[in-house]
């Protein structure tokens, strides 16, 4: 079976190289698909309401003749049976070809991902993409799944080629992000080495904001060196954007972005108006047909053999792949592959030098370090008396190791030697949100566009924890000091030492150990030990109000009176003076958007748990101005350390006040 399979692969490569010049890729696939890679959306049963809604939705999408710009986004159904779908065609594909491609994608997707609630499909050459899910996917920038492939041929001038590719794709990115809600696409070319031409194409789903489209394409461009450097062609594809380049091969239709006109060949020599060598040309054509037809027939026979053998292959694409994915998840349960030598970390931080100290919290000190390969890291060295035991430590390692999202800080490793417990994270350049937002001078560096991006990024990170990760996770300590900012001011949620795992269908849990930071705690958690996803929603609401106002929730001074931010925002909202909440360092350009964020923040901090929106609803509210927001109710009372005696009367253990604004965590293991 292996020999015919190899023969098929070789044949496809030969056939492709004949029809597309020297485009020979390391992975030759007519299409690429992923069936719910995290395996957390579940399956649906045949003939169920979800199945009927999915079929209706995909049929509507692929038969719609009113859309002529190649972007389709629809939903159908209600509640847990609601289905969302997005179809995107490459910017140069004509409407009829687009619908034909999506129709074929529909057939392939439902065949290759049967009964899966979430799936995505890319056709040959990414001419179209089709995806569907039982969660909201419109307006959400998706990083994963991602795949890349390269042309196996090396460039004739590596340095010049890499420089031209980077410049070309950068320029195309700048053009594509300026697109509108119908198309975000750009294609073009630049001269390459030895009179060659390098063609490039970039595209985003047009439901993305300019910022998110740019972020997605920049992430793709950053993948080019690792996948396709020194090669004459390559591509990087994600659900929200794709990018490709080729040398001397025009892979898109020039009507969308015309390449430079080729130099005209010299006219044929003539004598008395008659073209010479006409008979020779006809003879050459006849010989070409005589040779080419048998070769084509042989190729077709081999292709049919390959298709037959692949159809007869054992059914591995579903059950076995599922088992392999489950095995991979099981492997994550063991943290040993992430374990680092303590001396390696000691050397990276210059023996935990005070000059490398980044901050200090309830659990210990965070240092900046540099590994021997030059990679910068952030090292969290837990203090001997931190109160975090081995179970809490392993909890953070196991939790964070499973989390992969652009708005969550990434765990690189850990060390557990003797009494030393150390966590190693990616280094995030711009410290934490509180370093900027609560400083009178530095807050001016955060204009409204940056603040809105931070709010939206935090919301997406929490939504991933609550609904889209392999696990349902309640963070329980969301606050400004736990939001790190990278070099582009993208937010990354950190500190999972007190996060709690929830079952898929679990909605609430009780604890006798109240942990976290006062001012961000939901009242039902602070007083009764009840926490849920809505506890994190409450903390997010406080964060939104802090970001818009530039003030801490711990108190706003008004002449001689002190008022907490949540009640201050509510009072001004109710009195029609909500603009008083806005940070005076912000200009008036986006005043309506600021007021909408205040509105959303107040909805999140309502005392009634059921009245608070879910994070999925919050993301929709932030992404769409057309969504009507309900009127908020009065927020919960502010919880701070002065309520400790009241809390003791409820019979709960009290959490100590944080050191330097960081929380002391006491995790109650499940």
From TrEMBL:
ATP binds at residue 380. GO terms for molecular function: ATP binding; protein serine/threonine kinase activity. Residues 256-269 have a biased composition (Pro residues). It is found in: Membrane. Residues 1-21 form the signal peptide. The chain crosses the membrane at residues 287-309. InterPro entries: GNK2, GNK2_sf, Kinase-like_dom_sf, Prot_kinase_dom, Protein_kinase_ATP_BS, Ser-Thr/Tyr_kinase_cat_dom, Ser/Thr_kinase_AS. Residues 32-137, 143-250 form the Gnk2-homologous domain. Pfam families: PK_Tyr_Ser-Thr, Stress-antifung. Residues 252-279, 649-670 are annotated as: Disordered. SMART domains: S_TKc. PANTHER family: CYSTEINE-RICH RECEPTOR-LIKE PROTEIN KINASE 27-RELATED, RECEPTOR-LIKE SERINE/THREONINE-PROTEIN KINASE SD1-8. This is Cysteine-rich receptor-kinase-like protein. It comes from Medicago truncatula. The gene is 11417211.
């Amino acid at each position: 079976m292996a020999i015919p399979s190899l023969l098929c692969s070789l044949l496809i490569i030969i056939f492709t190289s004949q029809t597309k010049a020297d485009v020979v890729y390391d992975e030759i696939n007519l299409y690429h698909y992923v069936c719910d890679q995290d395996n957390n959306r579940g399956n649906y049963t045949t003939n169920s309401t979800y199945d009927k809604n999915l079929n209706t939705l995909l049929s509507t999408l692929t038969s719609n003749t009113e859309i002529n710009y190649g972007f389709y986004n629809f939903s159908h159904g209600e509640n847990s049976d609601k289905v969302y779908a997005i179809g995107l065609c490459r910017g140069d594909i004509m409407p009829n070809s687009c619908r034909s491609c999506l129709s074929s994608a529909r057939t392939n997707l439902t065949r290759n991902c049967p009964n899966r609630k979430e799936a995505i499909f890319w056709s040959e050459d990414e001419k179209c993409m089709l995806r569907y899910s039982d969660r909201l996917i419109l307006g959400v920038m998706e990083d994963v799944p991602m795949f890349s492939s390269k042309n196996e041929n090396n460039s004739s001038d590596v340095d010049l080629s890499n420089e031209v590719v980077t410049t070309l794709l950068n320029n195309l990115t700048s053009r594509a992000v300026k697109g509108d809600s119908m198309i975000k696409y750009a294609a073009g070319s630049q001269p390459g080495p030895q009179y060659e031409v390098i063609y490039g194409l970039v595209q985003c789903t047009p439901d993305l904001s300019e910022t998110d489209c740019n972020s997605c394409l920049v992430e793709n461009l950053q993948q080019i060196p690792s996948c396709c450097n020194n090669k004459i062609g390559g591509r990087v594809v994600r659900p929200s954007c794709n990018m490709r380049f080729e040398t001397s091969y025009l892979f898109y239709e020039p009507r969308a972005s015309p390449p430079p006109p080729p130099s005209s060949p010299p006219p044929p020599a003539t004598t008395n108006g008659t073209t010479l060598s006409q008979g020779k040309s006809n003879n050459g054509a006849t010989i070409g047909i005589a040779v080419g037809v048998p070769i084509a027939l042989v190729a077709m026979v081999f292709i049919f053999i390959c298709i037959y053998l692949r159809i007869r292959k054992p059914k591995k694409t579903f059950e076995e792949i599922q088992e392999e994915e489950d095995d991979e998840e099981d492997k994550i349960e063991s943290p040993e592959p992430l374990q680092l030598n303590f001396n390696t970390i000691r050397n990276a931080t210059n023996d935990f030098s005070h000059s490398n100290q980044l901050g200090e919290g309830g659990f210990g000190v965070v240092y900046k370090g540099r590994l021997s390969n030059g990679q910068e890291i952030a090292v969290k060295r837990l203090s001997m008396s931190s109160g975090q035991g081995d179970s809490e430590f392993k909890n953070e390692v196991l939790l964070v190791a499973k989390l992969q999202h652009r708005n969550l800080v990434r765990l690189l490793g850990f060390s557990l030697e003797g009494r030393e417990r150390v966590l190693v994270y990616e280094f995030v350049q711009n410290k934490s949100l509180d370093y900027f937002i609560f400083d009178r001078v530095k807050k001016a560096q955060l204009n409204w566009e940056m603040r809105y991006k931070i709010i939206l990024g935090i919301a997406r990170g929490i939504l991933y924890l609550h609904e889209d990760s392999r696990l349902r996770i309640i963070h329980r300590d969301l606050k400004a000091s736990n939001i790190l900012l990278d070099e582009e001011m993208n937010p990354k949620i950190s500190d999972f030492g007190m996060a709690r795992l929830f079952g898929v269908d679990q909605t609430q849990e009780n604890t006798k150990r109240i942990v976290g930071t006062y001012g961000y705690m939901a009242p039902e958690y602070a007083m009764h030990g009840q926490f849920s996803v809505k506890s994190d929603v409450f903390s997010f609401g406080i964060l939104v109000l802090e970001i818009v106002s530039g003030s801490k929730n711990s108190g706003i001074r008004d002449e001689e009176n002190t008022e907490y931010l949540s009640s201050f925002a509510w009072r001004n909202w109710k009195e029609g003076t909500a603009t008083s909440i806005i940070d005076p360092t912000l200009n008036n350009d986006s005043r309506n958007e600021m007021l909408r964020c205040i509105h959303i923040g107040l909805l999140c901090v309502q005392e009634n748990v059921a009245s608070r929106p879910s994070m999925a609803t919050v993301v929709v509210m932030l992404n769409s101005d057309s969504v009507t927001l309900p009127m908020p109710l009065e927020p919960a009372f502010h919880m701070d350390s002065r309520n400790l005696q009241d809390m003791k009367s409820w019979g709960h253990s009290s959490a100590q006040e944080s050191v330097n604004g960081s929380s002391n965590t006491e995790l109650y293991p499940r």
